[in-house]
Amino acid sequence: MNLVKTIGRILPVALSLSVLVACGDKKSEKPAPVKQPEPAKVEAPAPEPEQPAPFDFSKFAAIKNNSQVFLTTNAEVEAYLNDAFAKVENGQATSIEFPNVSSLFELASAELSSEGRAVIATVGSKFAQTNIDAASLLVEGYTCDLGSVAYNDELSQRRAETVKAEFSKYIPASKITAKWYGKRMFKKFKYGSREEYRRVNVRIQ
């Protein structure tokens, strides 16, 4: 009987201690760390492609001595300019000797052909990509010997101004000088036919 009483007295105390121990364990538990979301990855912007430095047009050597080298088709102009600029960019040359470029006209006409417009577009676009402050264009209008002096003076002027206006689509008009000579310059260049005298010569100066 005494044993039963003793157990009766000890059991509640043991249970109380168990509860305290259990509560103490719960109080000592550390909360689980909250996982922080990973910062979103921000991709660096792609670097912009480097733009080629403008070609120094002060190194352009224009032919000013009425050279017999004339380019009259767009294929000739494109091939010549692509080759010349590539040599400068690759360090194979420090200047470009620019030949005369010509737009040819029909008899008594100051209207540009599609080929003439293509030639001007090629030259004008290439010129516009460079340092044009160092150079300008000279356009010179000519005619053959058919018709009066007065008529040919007026016709050569219209041809020169037509070419200047077309170039103005690509470069400032202030960089273009127009001159005209009528039939006074006929035979000076010794072209092979009258058709070749009906032209506007363009050169860089």
Automatic annotation (TrEMBL):
Name used for this protein in its record: OmpA family protein
Highest taxon listed in the record's lineage: Bacteria
Presence of the UniProt keyword Membrane in the record: yes
Domain OmpA-like: from-to ranges: 92-205
A GO-annotated cellular component: cell outer membrane
Keyword tags: Cell outer membrane, Membrane
Disordered: region residues: 28-50
UniProt feature, compositional bias: Low complexity: 35-45
Annotated SUPFAM superfamilies: OmpA-like
Gene3D superfamilies in alphabetical order: OmpA-like domain
Record's subcellular location: Cell outer membrane
Species lineage: Bacteria, Pseudomonadati, Fibrobacterota, Fibrobacteria, Fibrobacterales
Organism name: Fibrobacter succinogenes (strain ATCC 19169 / S85)
Keyword DNA repair assigned: no
